[in-house]
What does this fold into?
Amino acid sequence: MIEAPILSVVAPCYNEQGNLVPLVTAVREALEPLQIAYEIVIADDCSSDDSWNILQTLGAADRRIRAVRLDRNCGQSAAVWAGLQAATGRYLATLDADLQNHPRELPRFLAAIQEDRCDCVCGSRVAARARGDSAVRRISSKIANGIRNRITRETVSDSACGYRIFRRECAARLKFFKGMHRFMPTLFRIEGFTVTEIPISHHTRLSGQSHYGVLNRLFVTIYDLFAVRWMQKRMFRFEVKARINIPPDPPAR
Ligand code: UDP
Ligand code: MG
It folds into this structure.
């Protein structure tokens, strides 16, 4: 069932050869009991390991597993964006490929968004972080979220958490740039969408290594932060109220 899936599960992947089969298996196990049409879209950010070969094998065996491969390593935001472009579901979930946040939480996220109370549900790792991250990582994340909230006048506890679900319309209007994956709750709100956070569990990586250290995250995040603040103040938002000889916008899907 590739046509019109209810849910697309999108994962960025850079050198995740040890995680892809467990990831796909875990998504299947999480979603099969729901008996919904779904797809898994993996965006390979030009991995140099065996990830793409594994994806080819997975895709040949199951057409619901779809993948794109970027021609160069462009970073997590670009990979998420490429995956969202290829996704066809009514609801789009994103999660990292390394199983730090487990697919078994997807049904809870889907139920939360289907209850129709908001446009985007974001995971928050704050309560569970001690299980999956080092003390340095936990502290730097706390400081980063504090500064981010102060500058953007937000109250998001874990802005960079990659585990989210949102309506297709949200992705269509999202402003994408290198580093945007750390600001998605605020970027959605800039577009007028409603966002909520719910706690998720957090674990150490199943296989492979983190692609970030404190420094390569910190400085770009500060740089991006002021761009996001600028967007909050300067981006315009409107709906067309009336038209003459111009057809209405096509429905979001
Ligand atoms: N990732 C990517 N391109 C990159 C770096 C990371 O697609 O250049 C993916 C990576 O494969 C993973 C996700 O982004 O699925 C988050 O990366 P990572 O686990 O290294 O981040 P951390 O959990 O340490 O913040
Ligand atoms: Mg990770």
About this structure: Residues 7-234 form a domain with the Spore Coat Polysaccharide Biosynthesis Protein SpsA; Chain A fold (CATH 3.90.550.10). The mean pLDDT is 94. The first strand starts at residue 7 and ends at 13.
